[in-house]
Write a structure and sequence with these properties.
alpha/beta; Rossmann fold; 2 domains; five-stranded parallel beta sheet; four-stranded parallel beta sheet; binds phosphoric acid mono(formamide)ester
């Protein structure tokens, strides 16, 4: 175990060794067991986390806030639109000032081309750990929960086939941070990864290059495909979700028009039946029900979406306990 994570920022899991990620996952499992048994674990008594949101959230906000309370501390919820950021507070000022009030700063900023830079600029000025609650490039706390869930369901991930697929959604141009970060993590853990999407829904070239390098080092594999149904065949883990044509579209309307040409990319029972007999279905939520995934799949016996959502709590508590103590 690599136990000294005190003071570390978590902006990208690529900044952490697999030993360090394994430590977080082991602590998360311990905290999950203790919570199940009613064992209190006030590891961050009197500590405060600032949670700064530039974008809406259900799971991330609720799980970080509950997690801080369960660790004996407090989380303050700050919406950017209620702050003076629009009137001039810079990332450096946010890092300096919130870092003096708090023991950690968590930020969600998914603005394309802005979010990751913003979080890194705050971190450069902060004296306390900065945690990425999702940016335009990465969603590390979602991926920790996903790794935890996959291990609970499938044990050792090495040699397991995971399909990371685009799916259609009509609600909005979803960030590409989940597929990118999942791709990076799955290739690090020696999985056989199928990345499936229509040609217009590319991920960032530098992320693909890192994933190829990860796969080479871990003796896993990365196969790129554009045939939705072929991606399901024999797969152990189907992680099919929508994301925006962010590298291609001129604006949201253009992105929506491109996506609409692939409106048949829905995860349904017929397609799930092509996967391995014991395949699981994963999605970080929120999902466009009946469009992105059929109710029979997301509510069906192969779906682990609620375990994923629950594990956000345990994984984030582990990160906070290890970095903010
Ligand atoms: N999966 C996820 O990050 O959910 P929220 O957007 O609701 O936080």
């Amino acid at each position: 175990m690599q136990t000294d994570l005190r003071g570390r920022d978590l902006i990208s899991l690529q900044d952490f060794t697999t030993d360090e990620i394994d430590t977080i996952l082991e602590v998360a499992l311990q905290l999950k067991r203790e919570r199940a048994m009613g064992v209190p674990h006030p590891l961050l008594r009197d500590k405060v986390l600032a949670m700064l949101f530039f974008f809406s959230s259900t799971r991330t906000r609720a799980s970080f806030e509950a997690g801080m309370a369960q660790l004996g501390g407090h989380a303050q919820f700050i919406e950017s639109r209620t702050t003076q950021i629009a009137h001039g507070d810079t990332p450096t000022e946010i890092g300096e000032i919130l870092g003096r009030y708090n023991d950690g700063i968590a930020i969600r900023n998914v603005d394309w081309g802005i979010g990751n830079r913003y979080i890194r600029d705050v971190a450069a000025a902060s004296r306390v750990p900065v945690l990425n609650m999702q940016c335009d490039v990465y969603h590390p706390h979602q991926i920790l929960a996903d790794l935890m869930t996959m291990r609970e369901r499938r044990g050792d991930l090495r040699g397991r086939t995971i399909t990371i697929s685009w799916a259609y959604a009509a609600s909005y141009q979803k960030p590409i941070s989940v597929p990118q970060d999942l791709l990076l993590a799955a290739t690090r853990y020696g999985m056989d990864v199928r990345l499936v999407h229509p040609p217009e829904f590319e991920l960032m070239p530098e992320i693909l290059a890192q994933a190829q390098d990860n796969a080479r080092r871990s003796h896993g594999s990365l196969e790129r495909m554009d045939d939705f149904e072929a991606g399901f065949r024999g797969s152990d883990i189907v992680y099919a979700k929508s994301w925006g044509a962010l590298l291609r579209a001129k604006d949201d309307a253009d992105g929506a028009a491109i996506a609409a040409t692939y409106s048949d990319w829905i995860t349904d029972e017929r397609r799930m039946a092509m996967a391995a007999d014991d395949a699981i279905y994963m999605h970080p939520l929120p999902a466009d029900r009946g469009i992105e995934v059929a109710d029979a799949v997301i509510d069906g016996p192969r779906s682990v979406v609620y375990d994923q959502a629950e594990n956000r709590l345990h994984a984030q508590k582990a990160v906070m306990a290890l970095t903010m103590r």
